[in-house]
Specification:
Helix content is about 50%, strand content about 15%. The protein contains 14 helices and eight strands. The strands form two sheets. The protein has a four-stranded parallel sheet with strand order 2-1-3-4, with helices on both faces. A four-stranded parallel sheet has the order 6-5-7-8. Strand 1, helix 5 and strand 2 form a beta-alpha-beta unit. The longest helix has 26 residues. It binds cobalt (II) ion.
């Protein structure tokens, strides 16, 4: 803001009274800038909370000597990496070192067979320390604070406690879906990004993951209802959780929907999206919709490929408060 204000202020002075004010310009500028700053403060304050914090202040958003650890479940599907690449590009705008860690042992074991070795969260912390980072932001790229998020958080906490002097702070960013704001922004972003060639009357079925025991399914219920409020032909169900696909299928039938778009409601369009959602097996959701007489179209894009969803993750990184080096109740 200041860099913009200086030329504007000097231009005003020069054009009105060039000679008289020329020598006193620096002296006059300072109080003038204060006035400008005070006048604009409420305006920019509002604009910043409404827009993405990243778009507003990319480089100055995190203090110097900060670094980001992006903790993801991981994927073994090369096509799914597009989502991670898009997320990496968003985080590059913060202008600090960014490292990645895969939290899934199964995925890491699969990738090891192909000679790939993504870092564990503990190894990713080592990488940040080697880069001279003192203030870490760990950002979960999980959908909700379920089992995978808890394991990651505990793993990072254990690694931090093993060498507590390496960093000045290690803040934990929350997963995607926690607050009403998160829900509203994600729902709006997904609907905004949906292909324009969806015709009126076409349904959308989104596949979320969920948990077999229903853990962390509640945010999914809220998001399902938010999609329904925004567009009654959009249905969210989960492949492993308690949001039943049968219910979505019955609702589509009852509404006489003829064509259905299928898309993952997961950060990457990985194995579930390519097999359980849209695969040729007869129990895939696509097969079951076709069995019910509906035409299906797939939209295999992970949520990481949607800019508005990435903005929520980045906001969570910038807002992260919980410092693992200062956990209350632990001495
Ligand atoms: Co799964």
């Amino acid at each position: 803001m200041f860099s913009l204000s200086v030329p504007v202020v000097s231009r005003v002075f020069r054009s009105s009274r060039p000679d008289r004010f020329a020598g006193r310009l620096p002296m006059l500028c300072l109080p003038m800038l204060c006035v400008v700053a005070l006048c604009l403060a409420p305006v920019t304050g509002c604009a910043r909370s409404a827009a993405s914090p990243v778009a507003a202040t990319p480089a100055a958003a995190l203090p110097a000597d900060s670094g980001v650890l992006l903790a993801v479940f991981g994927t073994s599907e090369p096509e799914a990496l597009a989502a991670y690449e898009a997320i990496a590009a968003s985080y590059a705008k913060l202008g600090v070192p960014v490292v990645w860690a895969y939290t899934s042992d199964i995925i890491r074991a699969k990738l090891a067979k192909a000679g790939k070795r993504p870092a564990t969260p503990a190894e990713a912390l080592d990488q940040l320390a080697a880069k001279g980072v003192r203030n870490v932001r760990v950002q979960s790229l999980h959908m909700a604070a379920g089992e995978e998020f808890s394991q990651m958080e505990l793993g990072v906490y254990a690694a931090v406690l093993r060498q507590p002097d390496r960093f000045d702070s290690v803040r934990m960013g929350r997963p995607l879906l926690e607050s009403e704001q998160d829900m509203n922004e994600v729902v709006a972003a997904v609907l905004r990004d949906f292909p324009r060639d969806r015709r009126p009357g076409d349904g959308i079925v989104l596949m979320g993951h969920g948990h077999a025991d229903g853990r962390a399914d509640l945010p999914m219920f809220a998001v399902r209802d938010a999609f329904q409020r925004a567009d009654p032909l959009v249905f969210l169900a989960t492949v492993e959780g308690s949001l039943d696909f049968e219910r979505a299928l019955a609702a589509l039938r009852a509404r006489g929907v003829r064509r259905v778009w299928l898309a993952p409601f997961m950060v990457v369009a990985g194995d579930h999206a390519r097999n359980d959602l849209s695969g040729p097996e007869e129990d895939s959701w696509a097969s079951r919709l076709r069995e019910a007489g509906m035409e299906t179209t797939t939209h295999l894009k992970g949520l990481g490929e949607t800019a508005g969803v990435r903005d929520v993750f980045v906001r969570h990184t910038l807002e992260a408060k919980q410092d693992l080096l200062r956990v209350k109740g632990v001495d």
